[in-house]
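Extended Data, record Branched-chain amino acid ABC transporter permease
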Amino acid sequence: MSDRRYLKPAAAVALALVLCLPPFYLDAFWLRIGLFSVAAAIGAVGLSLLSGTAGQLSLGHAFFLAVGAYGYTWLAGDPGPGLPTALAAFLAVLLAGVAGGLFSPVAGRVRGIYLGVATLALVFLGHHLLLTADSVTGGFNGRSVPPLTLGGFGFTADDPELTVLGVPFGAEERLWFLGLALFGLTWFTARGLLRSRPGRALAALRDSETAAAVMGVDVARYRSAAFVVSSMYAGLAGVLLALAFRRVVPDYFSLALSVDYLAMIVIGGLGSVAGATAGAVFVTALPLLMTRYADQLPLVATPGTDGGGVGPTEAARYLYGAAIVVILLYAPDGLHGLARRVRARLRPRRAPAEQPPASTVPSATAVRPKEHTP
């Protein structure tokens, strides 16, 4: 039993070491897939806290991703204040939280499908602003993203030149470790929130708002707080996406992106940090892999050709749409719940404790005093 206490920390350290190896062995394509997946995982964790833990339906996650991405680009760029990039990234996350706070009165009073429709309006409003506010967003063509610099160290290809163990570190290699650090921060803060008193209050809201109110939970306050926290996670994901893409355009932050994030948390498992991560990797990596290997897949058309078949992006949407149907039918708690049940089946059962021999157990008649008859 004493050794099991160190099993999870040892596994976490081993996983962290394994995740540090890809920049030394994989090319830029695979590292970009990893970066996009890590950024999506950060945003999916935030949406899982909102929809899976607090029980609030949101279709506006793409709006808060755009606030983070464009907030960093404008704050650190020219035109713009031209702030230090580290400060601009921090303020962009806060800006996404402020945007969530401005919407939180609606989130505190509206629920269910009505909240979903209200957040849907955010996506269309945000897309319109991104197209029309040319001085801030660059309009339809978007804006180039200033590279991040921390303490004189730039996350670009040659600022400064860096070689580790004989491997030249370009932008992707450097951003890989930044993404891992940000995801580690997201993982531990989200899991800590779920295990804390506010996390239990949010779970109580999901199960029954009436029961939560009877137990003393301020329903409107916690619903609003969940929206703010989720928006800040989305803003952080938007900053990392902007750094990975190196250019932000309005069409990326559309309703389809919000639907993708809903697919991530449904496939992975609502209310689970690990499940949201698995769903984000699946939904993000699948279209990129299908685009790369389109010429080797049946019924999938190679991008840029006139051949018959379905485009890789559309084919990927069909596949994870089918995955959602299968998950809802056979594993409603998602991949995380499925993995938990598999682990429970594989775990060796404890042998029942041996009972002492019957002859050593005193019987009731042996200790009962004799009755004296008159």
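Summary. The CA atoms of residues 57 and 113 lie 7 Å apart.
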